[in-house]
Design brief:
Phosphatidylglycerophosphatase A; phosphatidylglycerophosphatase activity
Amino acid sequence: MTHITGFDRRNWRHWLAFGFGSGLAPKAPGTFGTLAAIPFYLLIAPLAWPSYLGLIVVLTILGIWVCDRTARELGAKDPSAIVWDEFIGFFITMLPVSATVLTATHGWIWVVAGFLAFRLFDIWKPWPIRVIDERVGGGLGIMLDDVLAGLMAAAVLWLAIRFGVS
């Protein structure tokens, strides 16, 4: 991944792909992108689970197209400034955390746990994430490794919720 700043503030696709500007952070843009996803997560968290999941599917499909177009416009395979994939990965991570869990006394613990779990899998890239990251190109490749990292992090949260860690 390369850090490219070719952000065009007149282009709505760039706003989305760059995580509303959070991907422009000079260091750790993926971490800043994930942090920027938290307020958006808090806005969609109260949705009923099927609506939340449906929104993630729609935003993922949109993200594949937007990230592909933006990467092509920047002339790079997977620029680190593109962080929409981190938004989606974090939203997926938080799937097991219902609005009920989120509003409980320890709700913020789940947000922090989700953030840490997602960043761990996104940075570490265990199999098959690393293979996908290396072999799948375009918008699908940009998005898919973070979708998988989000699924792995969601499994960790689900296990923690299921077995009563709080």
